[in-house]
Design goal:
Shape: globular
CATH superfamily of the largest domain: FAD/NAD(P)-binding domain
CATH topology of the largest domain: FAD/NAD(P)-binding domain
Number of strands: 19
CATH architecture of the largest domain: 3-Layer(bba) Sandwich
Strand content: 15-25%
Bound molecules: flavin-adenine dinucleotide
Number of helices: 17
Number of domains: 3
CATH class of the largest domain: Alpha Beta
Length: 528
């Protein structure tokens, strides 16, 4: 008799989703997490005394209504914002304000020109068929073949958008809908960053339109807006953890899985790094699929061609994430005084144009840190005061591009290590300098700060290359070229009882719950 009916490896939001659904369906389920806390990259963590940070993911993107309902996400307290974000370039340009009220938003965008309104409407129409083809929010459905992707188009225009999705670039699409590089610089920059943060490619690189469609996609017309959770994004995963354990599920923290044990082509359980073994006929791995197949499963249990395919996944994470404990609120100088209104401070994008982002990416490939990096700055404590002590603030900044390991120069390991550290300091400095150019007291307000590179994120969460997508959104890593719960469509993993559930699976990165949901559905369908 096995110890449990099912074991889930990893308590990120996908692992917790799978564990919750399995436990609720009556399978006694154990969820094993290597860290001290559950939530993975969707966690709120007190990094400094009294200062809490959304350590990675910070906004809940529009979520599938089916999944939201099943997981009870709709009733979680949110931070109601009048302004979701403000985009600017920081060169004296007019900020673009994303009001949550659609009428207010359209009225404001009109100030930036009727072409901006028409361009955004055009982009939304462009994105419809690619959204269906990608199936990012499709609960319980398999990834699509190329033919099935084209079949999502209802007319010739939509067929052309599927061709864009597969072969086009971000700039191809932006040049079509928002061609004014100056007037729409911030908007183009925001959209370009939204896209390429899930790639290791500049926005002019063919194939990046897939990431634009991916970032711009929403489940349906009723779910357009992103959400901020009260208490930070960790409120989502704390909720899942509560539902899982209150239904009798068992979560074990500080429990790193070293091996998925397989005998006679079926899983029998897992071995932990302390040498203990736990048995179950079902193992759901909610860590990166390639790590699962090439490292955790005994090599002899996986055919060489499948193993080789998984070993080719591109994981070149190339971002920097900084967290700041601030002694007060930054004060923005003219012409950006508008940002001193607390309503405007939740999410400030200081973007580079797509052309600048392209150049910065090309430099990054040669190991050069951008001189003027694009930054997404958040000060969530402005609207959610529990995240920082009274009068203080917790801020986070996300920035591109930080050169990944293979882009750095240096022959010896020692030299590479030191250049890595130097680049981290250099890029961190540039992020602080850039924010301080707009808000002159920013640097003096910093009580403490920390900088996470992809390497740190990789160590913290076991994500290869620090890649939070667990497989970047390149056209050769979407659709049937992204695994589902049983591996790649047409080349399933021949191990009974083994399922894949992380962001590296179909459904993909972001806090969508879809890969975890799909894995649980696959387990339950096979049990039925
Ligand atoms: C800086 C940053 C900003 C982001 N911003 C957003 C955002 O605003 N909105 C959004 O939707 N997405 C965002 N993302 C992406 C999003 O956070 C991730 O794609 C998503 O959280 C991944 O979820 P997951 O459950 O698949 O994996 P993870 O969250 O990585 O969970 C995997 C878990 O498995 C554990 N683990 C690993 N190896 C083992 C092992 N051997 N044994 C046991 N446990 C193990 C890890 O500790 C981790 O807890 C961001 C990511 C980053 C890094």
């Amino acid at each position: 008799m096995a110890d449990y009916d099912a074991i889930v490896i990893g308590a990120g939001h996908n692992g917790l989703t799978a564990a919750t659904l399995l436990q609720r369906a009556g399978l006694s389920t154990l969820c094993l997490e290597s860290k001290l806390y559950a939530g993975g990259m969707a966690s709120t963590v007190e990094l400094f005394d009294g200062f809490k940070f959304e350590i990675a993911g910070s906004v809940q993107i529009p979520t599938s209504a089916t999944v939201s309902k099943e997981l009870g996400l709709d009733d979680l307290p949110t931070v109601d914002l009048d302004v979701m974000s403000v985009s600017l370039r920081g060169v004296g340009d007019d900020p673009l304000v994303y009001y949550t009220d659609p009428i207010k938003l359209m009225t404001h965008i009109e100030v930036h020109g009727a072409e901006a309104v028409n361009g955004m409407a055009g982009l939304m129409a462009w994105c419809k068929a690619p959204t269906r083809a990608l199936g990012r929010f499709d609960a319980g459905k398999p990834p699509k073949t190329l033919d099935e992707m084209y079949a999502c188009a209802t007319n010739e225009f939509e067929r052309s958008t599927i061709t864009d999705l597969l072969f086009g670039s971000v700039t191809d699409v932006l040049d079509r809908y928002l061609p004014d590089k100056e007037k729409h610089g911030a908007l183009r920059g925001m959209l370009a960053l939204l896209a390429v943060n899930t790639t290791y490619r500049g926005p002019a690189t063919p194939g990046t339109a897939a990431a634009l469609a991916y970032g711009f996609a929403v489940p349906d017309e009723n779910a357009l807006l992103v959400k901020k959770l009260r208490g930070g994004i960790g409120a989502l995963t704390s909720h899942l953890q509560d539902v899982f354990t209150s239904n009798g599920g068992e979560l074990r923290l500080r429990s790193k899985v070293d091996e998925i044990v397989v005998a006679d082509e079926r899983v029998t359980g897992v071995r932990l790094d302390d040498g203990t073994t736990v048995t179950a006929p079902v193992v759901v791995s909610a860590i990166a699929p390639d790590l699962t197949i090439t490292r955790l499963v005994d090599g002899a249990a996986v055919p060489a061609d499948i193993k080789e395919r998984f070993s080719r996944v591109d994981h070149r994470g190339s971002y920097l994430q900084m967290h700041f404990a601030l002694d007060g609120i930054p004060e923005f100088a003219p012409p950006y005084e508008l940002l001193n209104d607390p309503d405007m401070q939740s999410n400030i994008g200081i973007f580079s144009t797509p052309e600048e982002l392209q150049q910065q990416w090309e430099d990054c490939r040669r190991g050069i840190v951008p001189a003027d990096p694009a930054i997404a700055l958040q000060i969530p404590s402005v609207n959610d005061p529990g995240l920082a002590p009274p009068g203080k603030h917790a801020a986070s900044a996300f920035s591109l591009w930080f050169p990944p390991a293979d882009a750095r120069s240096g022959d010896s390991r020692e030299e590479t290590q030191s250049s890595y550290g130097e680049m981290k300091v250099e890029m961190g400095r540039r992020v602080i300098d850039k924010i301080t150019r707009l808000a002159p007291n920013f640097e003096s307000l910093i009580i403490r700060h920390t900088t996470f590179t992809p390497k740190h994120m990789g160590t913290m969460f076991g994500a290869p290359g620090g890649d939070y997508c667990h497989g970047l959104i390149h056209p050769d890593q979407i659709g049937i070229n992204r695994p589902g719960p049983k591996g790649y469509v047409g080349q399933p993993i021949p191990i009974d009882g083994l399922y894949l559930a992380s962001a590296g699976c179909h459904g993909g990165p972001g806090i969508t719950f879809i890969p975890g949901y799909n894995a649980a559905q696959a387990v339950l369908a096979e049990k039925a």
